[in-house]
Design brief:
With about 550 residues, this protein is an alpha/beta fold. It folds into 3 domains: about 5-195, Alpha-D-Glucose-1,6-Bisphosphate, Chain A, domain 3 (3-Layer(aba) Sandwich); about 205-440, Alpha-D-Glucose-1,6-Bisphosphate, Chain A, domain 3, CATH 3.40.120; about 440-550, Alpha-D-phosphohexomutase, C-terminal domain (TATA-Binding Protein, 2-Layer Sandwich). The protein has helices at about 5-15, 15-25, 30-35, 60-75, 90-105, 120-125, 160-170, 195-205, 235-240, 275-280, 310-330, 350-355, 365-380, 405-425, 430-440, 455-470, 530-550; strands at about 45-50, 80-85, 110, 130-135, 145-150, 190-195, 220-225, 245, 285-290, 295-300, 305-310, 340, 360-365, 385-390, 395, 440-450, 475, 480-485, 500-505, 510-515, 520-530. The strands form 4 sheets. It has a 6-stranded mixed β-sheet with strand order 1-5-4-2-3-6, sandwiched between helices. The chain has a 6-stranded antiparallel β-sheet with strand order 16-21-20-19-18-17. Helix 11 (about 310-330) crosses helix 14 (about 405-425).
């Protein structure tokens, strides 16, 4: 790709003054990074740094993606689309441009009047019977990022085949083939705003997923939306369940700069610092947090000495235990129950599910694959078989009312679980200890290695190639006994994926995959054994990955 030619073309055609100013200020290195490639529409849509350039998120890359989507929809006779956005800078502007672009093709758009949680977009698509959905969001990425996700008519993010087709349509669009459409031209006509009634329907549907009628009044909890889209819906839902939740004031309203938390990822310990501080002042039992688009849940629990932040796997196991045990005790567990997890998520779920005669289905990383399992069960006339799905990166869903992870229902069920345990004289931490004692002590953590820019991308691809050519012969002190390359494997009924899994004789596991949304290689390390030895086993494997990937 001729980055200099692309740059000059943008200088000649860009009308936006802010982007023109950025273009004029670029160094040669900046130009190469911004124009040496394109922001590709992958299986997770677009995601990138907001700036001028073909490899950046801006009004022109959003227009091109939406124009391609509109042509795809026209080719299939699709005539309606639901759209929402998160609290990030430029999200509303990108959302309005996407709405106008679709409307310019005669496609009817249902748009939220303000930022809303990602699961609400899935609910909109299904409830309004739209043919597609668009969510302008970068989820938990740093503040300089934004993104663009596309959903199908089931409210599920596009699966691989459909994403590939949309990509082909996008590739046929030129950035400056016509003037950008004006939102005001379509607002109130082909573009209609959704109303409060639909929001009430969503909250009511979330409330229906409760497992008991216990009031949450006894629970002392703190919540933070991390300046994101959950700022209204989550506190309201929790209060309807009886929880008088305290909200972190500095993070209580939407703010795309995320001034107190520039990397708003609830997996990271520092993300919950302000919430823990407020919790300590209130003697709170529980801290809960959502990421900016409110599809993930972070949890911290008072353990008698400090607030212990649970991993995504630990939260998922506690929720699965809560759901299975309560359904079983109320005779609400269906025949042939199914739980779904991604291949990088804890195998502890298999042991827990076996006690209830439940099947666990493993899918590729990405909640759309969990949504696809729900869709297949629904197509078979047995949607009630789906019990729960989760991924280790803090994404959870009970219920079939949406087809994406839902931080709202996850927050509600975690609070309900904590309240039930408190009534029994237990805590989330003590219950987790009981589960470890019963099913074995698992230690899982993800180690990530960052590769920025074009040069970093080249290094990342070489390292992924090298680990395939010469995989580790041992994980720590234990010999590798099984290697599965998901690009070539035929054992599992799964799409091809850039994932390598190593398993060793002592039960340790290492999964290596590139992130689909950030310039990272992720190494998912799992060890199982006695609690005292797990740390040493984990560190031995981590040192191996450091030596290989920390270049």
């Amino acid at each position: 790709m001729d980055y200099r030619h692309n740059y000059e073309q943008w200088c000649s055609n860009v009308k936006d003054e802010e982007l023109q100013s950025e273009l004029r200020a670029m160094t040669e290195s900046d130009i190469k990074e911004a124009f040496g490639g394109e922001l590709s529409f992958g299986t997770a849509g677009l995601r990138g740094i907001m700036a001028a350039g073909t490899a950046r998120m801006n009004i022109y890359t959003v227009y091109r993606a939406t124009e391609g989507l509109a042509r795809y929809m026209e080719a299939h006779g699709y005539r309606s689309c639901a759209i929402t956005y998160d609290s990030r800078n430029n999200s509303k502007r990108f959302c309005e441009l996407a709405s106008a672009t679709l409307a310019s093709h005669g496609i009817r758009v249902f748009l939220t009047p303000e930022c809303m949680p990602t699961p609400y977009l899935s609910f909109m698509v299904r409830e309004l019977r739209c043919d597609a959905g668009v969510n302008v969001t970068a989820s938990h990425n740093p503040s300089e990022y934004n993104g663009y996700k596309v959903y199908d008519g089931n409210g599920c993010q596009l699966l691989d085949e459909d994403a590939d087709e949309v990509t082909r349509f996008i590739d046929s669009v030129k950035f400056f083939d016509k003037p950008l459409p004006e939102f005001a031209q379509y607002e109130g006509n082909l573009v209609q705003y959704t109303d409060k009634l639909l929001e009430e329907m969503y909250i009511d549907r979330v409330m229906q997923e409760r497992l008991t009628d216990i009031s949450l009044e006894s629970l002392n909890a703190v919540y933070t939306p991390l300046n994101g889209a959950g700022y209204r819906v989550v506190p309201e839902t929790l209060r309807r369940a009886g929880l008088n939740v305290a909200v972190v004031s500095e993070q209580s309203l939407p703010d795309g700069d995320f001034p107190t938390c520039p990397y708003p990822n609830p997996e990271k310990a520092e993300t919950l610092d302000l919430a823990k501080k407020l919790a300590l002042s209130r003697n709170a039992d529980l801290v809960i947090a959502n990421d900016p688009d409110c599809d993930r849940l972070g949890v911290a629990v008072w353990d008698g000495k400090d607030y212990r932040q649970l991993t995504g796997n630990e939260t998922g196991i506690l929720l699965a235990d809560h759901i299975l045990s309560n359904l079983a005790s109320s005779h609400g567990l269906p025949a042939d129950p199914v739980l779904v997890k991604t291949i990088v998520t804890t195998p502890m779920l298999d042991a827990l599910a076996a006690d209830y005669g439940a099947e666990v289905r493993d899918v590729l990383t990405g909640f759309k694959y969990i949504g696809n399992v729900i869709g297949k069960l629904e197509a078979a006339g047995r949607p009630e078989r789906y019990i729960f799905g989760f991924e280790e990166s803090c994404g959870y869903l009970k219920g079939t009312y949406v087809r994406d992870k839902d931080g709202v229902i996850a927050a509600l069920l975690m609070a309900e679980c904590a309240a039930l345990l408190k009534a029994q004289g237990k805590t989330l931490v003590s219950r987790l200890g009981e589960l470890y004692d019963k099913y074995g002590h698992y230690l899982q953590s993800t180690v990530s290695y960052r590769f920025e820019g074009l040069s970093g991308a080249e290094v990342k691809e070489k390292l992924l190639s090298d680990i395939r050519k010469t995989p580790f012969a041992r994980l720590g002190d234990s010999p590798v006994t099984d290697i599965c390359d998901f690009l070539t494997q035929t054992k599992y009924d799964l799409p091809r994926a850039d994932v390598l899994r190593l398993r060793s004789a002592d039960g340790s596991q290492l999964i290596v995959r590139p992130s689909g949304t950030e310039p990272l290689i992720k190494c998912y390390i799992t060890v199982k054994g006695d609690e005292a030895g797990n740390g040493a086993r984990f560190e031995a494997i981590r040192k191996q990955t450091d030596r290989f990937f920390a270049v």
